[in-house]
Here is the input.
Amino acid sequence: MKEVTVLRQTTGTILMVRPASFGYNPETAGSNAFQKDISTADSGSQSELAKAEFDLFARELIKAGIEIIVVDDTKDPPKPDAVFPNNWFSTHILDDGRGLIFIYPMMSELRRKEVRYDVVNMLAEKYSYGIEDLSKSAGVIEGTGSIVFDHVNKRAFAALSPRTQESLLNEVCGKIGYEPVLFTAVDKGLQEVYHTNVVLTIGETFAVICTEMIKDASEREQVTELLSAGGREVIGITEEQVNSFAGNMLQLNDKDGVKVLVISEKAYRCLDEMQKQRLAVHNPKLVLAQISTIETIGGGSARCMIAEIFHN
Here is the structure.
């Protein structure tokens, strides 16, 4: 009988979408303080720069020993945020060893067009996934942007925002047997952080969190205590560092099981030496993504570009 491995925090297989029509999405800008409308820039050149950044990032991941499934975005209809596939689906291994794909409902109508059933069916056939399609739900929850999963302790951390609604979080958690952990994170202007994964990263033996953006003391204490469960080291970052995408990192493992930290060059530069040293203890390998166009115009960073593929 085939041995089933469950409750893994990291994977060495990912899916990325090479953009075809990358650009500024006005439908998402109201809730994403990271997006910048560079109106003087030519949209065609923005798209070409994003493709070049994507290709370089993918090559660096492959060099680091990560297995990548690259899917080309379709040109019609144009989808400016297709480079961020982690928002519309996630993959899971359940306690009994079965695989599962969730498909999520996103806030922007433009973004809802990113859902690719051909990709879902390809993954389902390749890895024997079941499918839970929430994409037609009335609410909004945006995949592993909205939810940062602690697979080892079966918890789902989520910062409430217009893109992350409690009812759908509870539905997801109910289907996979996870405990929801809700909190609110706001910036200095008291705007809710649009996605949880810009303030929180959970690796196998560490977590990165900006606690100063969690204003409620009891929520802050609960989140910190739960992240420390099982001996994880909790590494703090500041709101200023969050604004450079320092919270938007991801731990993967290479083909030999060695841990790889994936983070943008901009985000890594803003960390201090002690933070870098503490992260290096948990991540022998490092991949830096040079994605300034994608970060500035799209309002997402390295982690947002990666959909993890958990499989047996």
User: Anything to note?
Assistant: Residues 1-6 have pLDDT under 50 and may be disordered. The chain has one domain: 13-308. Residues 43-63 form the longest helix (21 residues). The chain has eleven helices and 15 strands.
